[in-house]
């Protein structure tokens, strides 16, 4: 227990931040480890944070996230573009001017044709976010349907002025953020229109992949053609080589880091090692905010959760303190009342479903479950005694949380059971309405730091596809007034940041009122690094930022 | 001879067909196993889903999908993973095979040497405290799950006592190819192979002891003794020859299933990129092509091993060969 207390002392933000060093820290090899590979090397296809965090040091878009610690890293800066353009035509047009003198790692210059071709390639290659992120570009609809013939009329390159103009069919207030996502990386125009698989594309950032074996690892070296054009968009790297090896279990990787054989582990640190890290390796252990929520989506189309009171009962009954303990304790997680994690603005800051509170009179924070109220709501809903199955991923933490929820459901009057599913298929299983999943527990992380990633992605009408395994609006929720607020927050480019955040907070409040899902906990990222790793540099979007740490 | 070969080949094809249909059927019968959404990526739009479904042929009838997969696995050999898009699985299995073979060769060396020694000593000194001690230890070895033993070995050699003189030589977990460094190869495999062999030493020593003791009651041994053979010749020559049939058949099957991927847990715990770990990874990510390739590979090995064992039987005990010829 003292060990856990020690860990608790390592509160977020307190990790010592060393000032950036100079040339004497340049060189060496950074050794990274992951249990398994993250799939394809195609930056426009891969959707795993394991590779996206690495790709952030290799590929660039027209825009990029600021490479800075903490909240500063949530900001958008111009990357391959000279400056961030002002939206024109009511947010339907953006004109970017490409920087001059930037080359790919094969020596060829980056041109405006490369930019236009890369945007087309998002559709030609079938990028997972082609529809959700870039569907507003003029011509995107035809490209989505017939990828091979994609022309994407909405992206116009003008080589004489080095400009690329984007025409959108409707305004998108987050378009610049979406262009900063790795799926909009700029690749050479002749990059094949199929998933690159194991073959790396030429890079623009400080590193390029020189060898890849999905069973062995990724080996990256310096990009000889890289020079710094914007310190905050793409800074130069310290280490000469990055070796990302696969195969060590999470337990073995923690031991290897302690032995100095590995510098960083991608996978979560196993819970049974947290105490040891807190007591023996305090200086090497960092706890950082992570834009992730655990939530319990409830299917609003089938009993018992087609009844609002039944859903409210769950929100009142769920023991968020117990869930926090099951996740690893208050040092690395906390009860959550909003669907948006606390690090982001644009969220409901009060707690409607806790003892002594209501939607009209919310408490400032979560206190305790209110089982009495929950039982009364279940009785009123007329759903008492119904059978409910909780679906979770078959992993120790998720299963423990599922057991807790099952017991809670039993305590408020349901005949509840738990169904743990293979982690690889659980997520697509709970999305498919044909599987009639009533309630589940799932974690969800943002692609970029915006409340939309939680509120629109998970509850937007456009994200519910009945009978499909790709339907991230898991509850099947669609409420016209809520959707109107979401649409305004997404499309009105005249709003100030504060006004937009206020809109998102209203959306959050609407969702809390209709409870298509109940938030459970938010979490922190426990990062364990080797003793020799210096200049610990953690960003919201890319976790440990590999180009900014040094090993000598 | 030709007929026998043809029969073996037919048997192999039949086994491979049965297993592949089973793996394929179980995969697609699993609720939520449709790989489209996982390949397309989180939150993929219906259009992207449709594209993936058609590109991978998931919109075709299952028998057609099965036939295409088998064609890609055995004929064109360009079957690619559903997870590591574009990674051909056949070369992956072939690259992993030497790792597993190295591990199993080392382990079998340990388990043959130790089990022979313990089995013979226990049989000769039957019912003495030495026999009871060895059999007790053997039972203990047999009862310890290999993944637990492996984790304990790692805890001791990689973590708690890693910096002591005793274990400072232990290399980081992982594999070193023989071509890169023979010494590194041996060092990397020593502890995993010993861990893997512990249960087999326990089992084989017990089997050998029992067989040896049973053989001692046979007429042939009495005759050997009557002809003046000394105890060493009786036990090691006549005794072993009479009792190693079951030992050899057991060895053949175990060796084959380990080479085929049965050392999965040892490979995972010691981070050895062998066929077992590949299977484990395939199962973890529900990567059907990888699962299919590793299962087929294992099946081929087990069927081949059966054939080899039958041949060795004939060599060890001419009566078996004669019986076959006499048919």
From TrEMBL, chain B:
Predominant cellular place of this UniProt entry's protein: membrane
Transmembrane spans: 12-30, 103-125, 132-150, 185-205, 244-270, 290-316
| Gene Ontology CC: one annotated term | plasma membrane
* SUPFAM superfamilies tied to this protein: MetI-like
Q: Work out whether the entry's keyword set contains Transmembrane.
A: yes
Q: Which residues form the ABC transmembrane type-1 domain?
A: 97-309
Q: Kindly indicate whether the keyword Lipid metabolism belongs to this entry.
A: no
**Gene Ontology process terms (BP):** transmembrane transport
Pfam families from the UniProt entry: BPD_transp_1, BPD_transp_1_N
Q: Which family does it belong to?
A: Belongs to the binding-protein-dependent transport system permease family.
Listed name of the protein: ABC transporter permease
Q: Which organism is it from?
A: Brytella acorum
**Which classification does the entry list for the species?**
Bacteria, Pseudomonadati, Pseudomonadota, Alphaproteobacteria, Acetobacterales
């Amino acid at each position: 227990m003292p060990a856990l207390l020690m860990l608790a002392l390592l509160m977020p933000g307190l990790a010592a931040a060393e000032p950036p060093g100079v040339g004497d820290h340049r060189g060496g090899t950074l050794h990274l480890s992951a249990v398994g590979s993250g799939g394809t090397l195609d930056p426009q296809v891969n959707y795993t944070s394991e590779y996206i965090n690495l790709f952030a040091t290799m590929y660039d878009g027209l825009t990029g996230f600021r490479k800075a610690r903490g909240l500063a890293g949530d900001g958008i800066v111009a990357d391959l573009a000279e400056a961030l353009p002002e939206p024109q035509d009511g947010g339907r047009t953006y004109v970017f001017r490409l920087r001059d003198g930037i080359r790919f790692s094969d020596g060829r210059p980056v041109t405006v044709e490369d930019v236009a071709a890369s945007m087309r390639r998002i559709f030609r290659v079938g990028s997972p976010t082609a529809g959700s992120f870039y569907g507003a570009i003029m011509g995107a609809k035809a490209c989505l349907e017939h990828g091979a013939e994609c022309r994407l009329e909405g992206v116009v390159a003008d080589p004489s002025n080095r400009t690329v103009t984007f025409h959108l069919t409707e305004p998108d207030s987050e378009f610049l953020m979406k262009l900063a996502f790795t799926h909009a990386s700029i690749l050479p125009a002749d990059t094949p229109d199929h998933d690159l698989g194991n073959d790396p594309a030429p890079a623009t950032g400080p590193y390029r992949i020189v060898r890849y074996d999905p069973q062995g690892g990724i080996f990256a070296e310096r990009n000889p053609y890289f020079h710094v054009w914007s310190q905050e968009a793409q800074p130069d790297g310290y280490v000469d080589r990055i070796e990302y090896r696969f195969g060590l279990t999470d337990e073995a990787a923690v031991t290897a880091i302690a032995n100095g054989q590995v510098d960083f582990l991608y996978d979560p640190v196993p819970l049974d090692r947290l105490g040891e890290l807190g007591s023996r390796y305090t200086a090497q252990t960092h706890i950082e905010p992570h834009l992730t929520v655990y939530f319990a989506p409830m299917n609003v189309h089938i009993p018992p959760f087609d009844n609002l009171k039944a859903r409210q009962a769950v929100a009142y009954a769920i023991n968020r303190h117990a869930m926090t303990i099951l996740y690893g304790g208050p040092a690395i997680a906390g009860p959550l009342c909003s669907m948006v994690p606390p690090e982001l603005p644009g969220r409901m800051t009060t707690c409607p479903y806790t003892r002594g509170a209501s939607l009209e009179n919310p408490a400032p924070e979560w206190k305790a479950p209110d089982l009495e109220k929950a039982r009364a709501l279940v009785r009123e809903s007329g759903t008492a005694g119904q059978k409910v199955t909780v679906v979770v991923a078959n992993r120790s933490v998720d299963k423990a949380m599922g057991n807790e929820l099952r017991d809670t459901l039993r305590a408020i009057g349901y005949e509840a059971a738990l169904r743990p599913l293979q982690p690889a298929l659980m997520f697509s299983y709970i999305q498919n309405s044909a599987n009639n999943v009533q309630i589940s527990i799932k974690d969800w992380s943002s692609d970029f730091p915006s409340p939309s990633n939680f509120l629109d992605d998970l509850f937007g009408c456009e994200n519910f596809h009945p009978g499909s395994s790709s339907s991230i609006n898991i509850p099947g929720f669609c409420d016209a007034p809520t959707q109107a607020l979401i649409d305004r927050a997404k499309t009105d480019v005249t709003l100030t940041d504060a006004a937009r955040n206020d809109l998102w907070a209203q959306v959050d409040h609407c969702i809390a009122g209709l409870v298509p899902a109940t938030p459970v906990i938010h979490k922190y990222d426990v990062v364990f690094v080797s003793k020799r790793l210096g200049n610990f540099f953690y960003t919201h979007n890319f976790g440990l930022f590999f180009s900014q740490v040094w090993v000598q | 001879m030709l007929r026998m070969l043809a029969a073996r080949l037919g048997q192999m094809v039949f086994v491979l067909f049965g297993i592949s249909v089973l793996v394929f059927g179980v995969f697609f019968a699993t609720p939520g196993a449709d790989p489209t959404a996982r390949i397309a990526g989180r939150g993929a739009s219906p259009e992207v889903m449709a594209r993936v479904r058609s590109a991978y042929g998931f919109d075709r009838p299952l028998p057609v999908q099965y036939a295409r997969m088998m064609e890609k696995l055995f004929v064109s050999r360009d079957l690619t993973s559903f997870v590591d898009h574009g990674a051909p699985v056949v070369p992956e299995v072939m690259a992993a095979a030497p790792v597993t073979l190295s591990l199993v060769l080392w382990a079998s060396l340990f388990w043959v040497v130790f089990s022979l020694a313990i089995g013979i000593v226990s049989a000769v000194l039957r019912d003495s405290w030495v026999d009871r001690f060895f059999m007790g230890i053997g039972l203990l070895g047999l009862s310890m799950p290999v993944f637990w033993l492996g984790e304990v070995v790692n805890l001791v050699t990689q973590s708690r006592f890693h910096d002591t003189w005793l274990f400072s030589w232990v290399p980081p977990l992982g594999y070193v190819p023989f071509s890169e460094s023979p010494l590194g190869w041996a060092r990397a495999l020593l502890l995993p192979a010993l861990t893997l062999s512990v249960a087999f030493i326990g089992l084989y020593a017990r089997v050998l002891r029992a067989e040896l003791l049973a053989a001692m009651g046979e007429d042939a041994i009495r005759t050997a003794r009557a002809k003046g053979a000394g105890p060493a010749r009786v036990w090691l020559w006549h005794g072993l020859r009479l009792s190693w049939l079951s030992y050899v058949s057991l060895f053949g099957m175990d060796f084959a299933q380990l080479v085929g991927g049965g050392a999965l847990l040892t490979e995972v715990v010691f981070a050895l990129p062998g066929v077992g770990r590949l299977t484990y990874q395939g199962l973890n990510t529900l990567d059907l092509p990888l699962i299919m390739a590793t299962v087929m590979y294992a099946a081929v090995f087990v069927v081949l091993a059966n054939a080899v064992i039958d041949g060795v039987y004939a060599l060890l005990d001419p009566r078996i060969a004669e019986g076959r010829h006499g048919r």
